[in-house]
Write a structure and sequence with these properties.
This is non-specific serine/threonine protein kinase. The chain is an alpha/beta fold and 510 residues long. The protein has 2 domains: 228 residues, 3-Layer(aba) Sandwich (Rossmann fold), CATH 3.40.50; 181 residues, P-loop containing nucleotide triphosphate hydrolases (Rossmann fold, 3-Layer(aba) Sandwich). It is 33% helix and 26% strand. The chain is built from 18 helices and 23 strands. Strand 9 and strand 10 form a beta hairpin. Bound molecules: adenosine-5'-diphosphate (ADP) and magnesium ion.
Length: 510
């Protein structure tokens, strides 16, 4: 089975079946190559789901590749109304209209009857020598002729005639059938069925696309995120459908955190290919730990990718500067790449697709994500969280990327960590916990390592300081003895520590 490269126009996906690429970002991946040439594709979805946008984007892709395309609307809509609506998308190319892309309306014929429509479609394809036909709005025909006996034959006749003419057909309908029940005949006759839908998950608007069937191609089942922008439609395949790498390599290297004392606690640093969570209440310095980690990488010539949801880059750079860290230098040199998403209406698959693409593009060895909470929140369906995060960590591990995620925990002062939160808490190999404790009337910062897989890590609790020179973890000797003794006496501290050193966590084999 050959997977088609995006951008290639036609290729062979399986056996002798030729596939027509849609040219829509992500859609060909979901389809497993494209649509069968000379086949019939049925696209359904409620009004506003993006059907007309999708078919035009596909039509322009085909036309710009040299094919002749006919777009036929069943609506009374004039061509100028269509241009008004679809002409604003950047894929619209007025130069192709009337040359390789022909827009027609058959509304008057639709009123006459189904047989007239069929004849007109076939004639139009023949007269233009079209290789792709789009019939936008099958529902109109059904609405006008609900009882017609010819209706059942219509799709069959048209598709047979078009295939003989070497033309691929795309038909849209706003009818949304029960795909698990009995479907109209055109659904059973189609070579491919794609659904576009819009929904609200906890008032978070979401567009999605689903491939119900695509003959001869290994399509990715399930619902995939869609976004419509001025560039048109883009599909973001569910990250879980990415093929998993066969054997995940194991690495012996350690990556310095940029903090010598922390490296000692971690038996040399962060194990390459592992995931580390830096957990702590707001203000404990999680972001600084992450910045220090990325900047240390850059100092060693390793590429880093910073994914942030909170602060815009200038704010982050200024903050780094105020703690004696230079983020702008490595960013200018291209050693650190910053991806920032405002935490508003984020779609997990879209953001993660971008993160994975950037990891591949930049060859990043280090990834810093600030913070995990936003990532969790983006995955609107809670039951998907584990699978999504597991796919992400598998991908990172397979590429030898060492990742650090910051994770906010609710409580400001105190020794306990609420570990009920993210599935990544379980997936991550290492957890570093930052917190404030009160000691002799003042707040002190302390750091501990709650877990580290396959490594005998330091179980001590250390004090750390945040100053103009960044974060500095104090050695055991430097840490206030009375403070540490006081913490050790706290009953809840013993609870946290016991979790962190649970059997199998420390020396257990993976
Ligand atoms: N520039 C844009 N950015 C984001 N969404 C857009 C943009 N232009 C149009 N849309 C949305 O795209 C959708 C287009 O729907 P359309 O293709 O006409 O759907 P259908 O044919 O299924 O009724 C509409 O929901 C519209 O709000
Ligand atoms: Mg439409």
């Amino acid at each position: 089975m050959v997977r088609l490269r995006r951008g290639a126009d036609v290729g062979v996906a399986s056996g002798a079946t030729k596939f027509l690429n849609t040219g829509i970002p992500g859609l060909d991946d979901v389809l497993g190559g494209g649509f069968q040439e000379r086949g019939l594709l049925l696209l359904f979805g409620p009004p506003g789901a993006g059907k007309t946008t999708l078919v035009f984007q596909m039509a322009f892709h085909a036309a710009s590749a040299g094919r002749r395309v006919v777009y036929i609307s069943t609506l009374a809509e004039t061509a100028s109304r269509l241009v008004e609506h679809i002409g604003t998308f950047s894929f619209w190319d007025a130069g192709l209209i009337g040359k390789r892309l022909f827009i027609e309306s058959i509304y008057p014929l639709v009123r006459q009857g189904v047989a007239e429509v069929a004849r007109a479609l076939i004639d139009t394809v023949r007269s233009h020598g079209a290789q792709l036909l789009v019939l936008d709005g099958l529902m109109t025909i059904r609405d006008l002729h609900p009882q017609s006996a010819e209706h059942r034959l219509f799709i069959h006749e048209v598709s047979v005639a078009l295939a003989a003419l070497g033309c691929t057909a795309v038909v849209t309908t706003s009818e949304v059938p029960d795909m698990h029940g009995s479907t109209p005949s055109e659904f059973t006759m189609s070579d491919a069925i794609v659904e576009l839908h819009q929904s609200d998950v906890h008032q978070q608007p979401a567009r999605a696309l689903r491939v119900w069937k695509n003959r001869g191609a290994p399509c990715a089942l399930g619902s995939h995120a869609v976004r419509i922008t001025a560039r048109g439609l883009a599909v973001y395949p569910r990250i879980e459908t990415r093929p998993l790498p066969g054997a995940v390599p194991t690495f012996a290297e350690r990556l310095s955190s940029g903090q010598p004392e922390l490296d000692v606690m971690m038996s040399g640093g962060l194990p390459r290919g592992s995931v580390t969570i830096v957990a702590g209440a707001p203000g404990t310095g999680k972001t600084l730990v992450m910045l220090q980690y990325l900047i240390e990488g850059a100092r060693q010539g390793q590429k880093g990718l910073l994914v942030g949801f909170r602060e815009p880059y200038p704010q982050l750079a200024a903050r780094a500067r105020s703690f004696g860290m230079d983020l702008e230098g490595p960013v200018k040199e291209g050693l650190i790449t910053v991806l920032r998403h405002a935490p508003v209406d984020l779609v997990a698959d879209e953001v993660l697709a971008q993160v994975l693409a950037e990891v591949e593009r930049t060859g990043a060895a280090r990834l810093g994500v600030d913070g995990l909470g936003e990532l969790d929140h983006m995955i609107a369906v809670e039951r998907r969280r584990r699978g999504v995060l597991a796919s992400l960590t598998e991908f990172l591990r397979a590429r030898g990327v060492t990742a650090l995620f910051t994770r906010e925990v609710g409580q400001v002062v105190g020794p306990e960590l609420d570990f009920a939160g993210s599935p990544l808490d379980v997936l991550a190999e290492n957890v570093i916990f930052l917190r404030y404790v009160e000691f002799r009337g003042a707040l002190r910062r302390i750091l501990s390592i709650l877990k580290m897989r396959d490594t005998l890590h330091d179980h001590s609790i250390r004090q750390y300081e945040i100053g103009a020179e960044g974060i500095r973890v104090l050695s055991q000797v430097e840490s206030a003895e009375g403070l540490l003794a006081a913490i050790a006496r706290l009953p809840s501290e013993r609870r946290v520590k016991r979790r962190g050193t649970a059997p199998g966590r420390r020396e257990g084999k993976r």
